[in-house]
Amino acid sequence: MTDIEIADLWAEILDIDEVEPDDDFFEIGGNSLLALDVVTAIAARCGVAVPLGEFFANRTPRTLAETMARLAAVSR
Amino acid sequence: MCWRARRPTWRVSAVSKLPRICLLVGRNGSLSPSEAAAAAREVAEPVLLLDRAEVADFPALRIVAESVAESVIVDTSDPDEVSDCVALRRASAVATFVDAYCPVADEVNARVFGLTAPPGRWQKEVQRALLVRHGVTRVTGSLVSTPGELSAAVSRHGLPVVVKPARGTSSRDIWRLMDPFDLDNFQSSVRLDGRSALVVEPYLPDPVASRGPHRADYLSVELFVTTAATTAFITDRRPLAPPCRETGLIVPTTLDAAAQHAVLAKAGQARQALGLGPGTYHIEIKLTDGGPEIVEVNGRLGGYVHRLAWLGSGTDVGRAAIRTALDLPVSLTLDWRQHTAVLLLQAPVAAARIAAAPRGREIRRLPGVLAVDHVSPAGEPLDWRNGTEAACAKLWVGAADERELHRRLVGCVAWLGDEFDFRNASGRRVRDEEPAQARGHRA
Predict the structure, then answer these.
(1) Distance CA B204, CA B443 (A)
(2) What are the tens digits of pLDDT across the range A11-69?
(3) Assessment of whether the complete model's pTM goes beyond 0.90
(4) B217: which DSSP letter?
């Protein structure tokens, strides 16, 4: 997933119009339980299992996209 | 009596070289488990302690906690088990962000670290007695559990009084009885069966000069205590919704320097009376014509304060709280870069159900809204007795100055009042009372 696709997913889950690539998930209305929804949706949509701890450490669409790319490369 | 509140020498984790800290966390804490773990980063190695019963009810809590830190499930009602857990992990300190766990944190501090404190200091009636004994206040409280005890307490204190659950939090089921009509209504609504205890306290008199339509006459102090120094900051409140429900918090305070000094001095007296050692405390204070009066003291950081301070100044007060628990120096320079509020929209007291509600993304478009945490959906039942946490909408609002912040808050409240359709038990629409209230009164 690209940072744009992640931003769109967050906007859907947080029910807001727009998420920027550098928005912090927890500053725009996200919380731990919604983070669970995000990683579950990511796994369902593209098959990448993002550990929740990685999500908490990479809280913007941009850094999360980089992390996902790294995780996908390791799993190949 | 001298309470031992100096922390023994650190124990350092062999692996990380950071001191280990056990944090009692839960769903209704002022920091979530993930926020608590993040606040500890580079300061301490956190071990999150989760309550067994709460995890059974909310399994996601465990999933989240285990993803961010070592987590242990304990029975928080068993001080022996919690103490053993803390000692086994060779932790240097224990702290909590959850009101309900403050007593067990005291027990562990005494058993594992030898840090003694006045017994029962987090129980409302015991705390008030301690404050009276040390001359911090003359306001007394009465514990009642039967109709006869209630009548006797009301006769003793005289109306108006405030009645609240002895073990309650978040303004849940707090009644303000201003006159005999209110007393009759209370007696016909609440069954005192001799089992659940209530605290009856005199209603603290409102000051003659209010702080205007946007700020309540009560506020809170976050007190960061270490052996070497005490640091504090004040958070203002928006006026209460009837009877005693919170409608929001605002930073920075607009109190003048002399009033701030008086408030902090009163907080300092409470600190002495309650033996508040290294740690972080939340003190609620009401401004009266006789000077600041203590409403309540909690053994943890206040709710919403962590994010308010972060949005307003970029300061992580959760990290400061972790440092105080370890008795490490705290440098708290709150350089406010924007005025910030959390707005808690409360439904009218008469509301029994939400017939229509706005969407989060609509609220997010309002001027100054930084984030929307919660919007209650249409169809949701309402009961004012569920207190502050039953707010229909929770949103964060920022502005460059105080005047603009108030303008934006008023705009948000008016818009939400139009968009939410509240119905009473008969199905008739009832309007939002919140914008109309002129003053906030904390009991």
Answers:
(1) 6
(2) 999 888 889 999 999 888 888 889 989 999 999 988 888 988 889 889 999 999 999 99
(3) no
(4) S
B364 touches chain A (CB under 8 A): yes
CB contact under 8 A, B64 and A28: no
Model confidence over B6-15: pLDDT tens digits?
A: 554 445 555 5
CA-based nearest residue to B239, from B206, B217, B216, B207: B216
pLDDT at B169 over 80: no
Which structure tokens are listed for B440?
A: 């906030």
B359 neighbourhood in chain A, CB within 8 Å = 15
Cβ contacts of residue A1 below 8 Å, gap of 6+?
A9, A42, A45, A46, A48, A65, A68
Q: In this complex, is the C-beta atom of B33 within 8 Å of any C-beta atom belonging to chain A?
A: yes
pLDDT tier for residue B206 given thresholds of 50, 70 and 90: confident
DSSP state of B381: B
Closest CA to B371 of B381, B361, B379: B361
Q: Would you call B373 and A35 a contact, using CB atoms and an 8 Å cutoff?
A: no
Closest by CA to B132, choosing from B298, B282, B269, is B269
Q: How far is CA B436 from CA B213, B277, B432, in A?
A: 9, 42, 8
- ipTM of the shown complex: 0.72
Using a CB-CB cut-off of 8 Å, the residues of chain A touching B67 are 51-53, 55-56
In whole angstroms, what is the distance from residue B268 CA to residue B391 CA? 32
Please give the interface size between A and B, counted as residue pairs whose CB atoms are below 8 Å apart.
52
CA proximity to B170, closest of B264, B278, B304, B11? B304
